[in-house]
């Protein structure tokens, strides 16, 4: 894990799920996932989008900062079908579903509306990959 990620993780845990810097005010989750080949546990700090109608669902956008490849955490979650998440001071198991079609597009558009950096990621990956969107539902 990078020192940068570890600093965010430490700040998240010290401040009841809130962080500063470039993520100040953004909804953050600590995503626990296991390497699909190694079995090693990893923790990734990520932004999420809460479902307005269902408090038991959050959406993760596998943007990888607009890189041409999907992030490893995305591949690990799709393979496992579940993950542990930390939101605020709460930790729970969530079941993972990949969104497709109009549902995926609606959630991605909402995230890009709220956080324009995601629109830039989509422009940078156009013609290379469609950025995946995952729904994590409290188990």
UniProtKB/TrEMBL annotation:
Q: Record's family?
A: Belongs to the F420H(2)-dependent quinone reductase family.
**GO cellular component annotations of the record:** plasma membrane
Could you give a GO molecular-function term held by this entry? coenzyme F420 binding
The organism's taxonomy opens as: Bacteria, Bacillati, Actinomycetota, Actinomycetes, Propionibacteriales
Q: List the catalysed reactions.
A: oxidized coenzyme F420-(gamma-L-Glu)(n) + a quinol + H(+) = reduced coenzyme F420-(gamma-L-Glu)(n) + a quinone
Residues crossing the lipid bilayer are none
The scientific name of the source species is Kribbella sp. HUAS MG21
Identify this protein by name.
Answer: Nitroreductase family deazaflavin-dependent oxidoreductase
Highest taxon of the lineage: Bacteria
- Listed InterPro entries: F420H2_quin_Rdtase, Split_barrel_FMN-bd
